[in-house]
Amino acid sequence: MKIIDLLNSRKSGISFEFFPPKTSKGFASLEETVLKLSTYNPLYMSMTYGAGGTSQDRTKNAVFMMRDRLNIP
Length: 73
Known about the structure:
By secondary structure, this protein is mostly helical. It is built from 3 helices and 2 strands.
């Protein structure tokens, strides 16, 4: 789903943006934070993409966690 579709689906809402975690401890902390913030029913959550491609795998894994494990757009 595209962000524009999410924005058109509700009159108002919030979104959250995160940085990709650098460690496995950071990943666990991110997962806990995302889970807590999901109770606010955000329109979507997004993940920054590391400059120079240094965090591509961490970014991808974090996005998949939000989407697949926690069902957050």
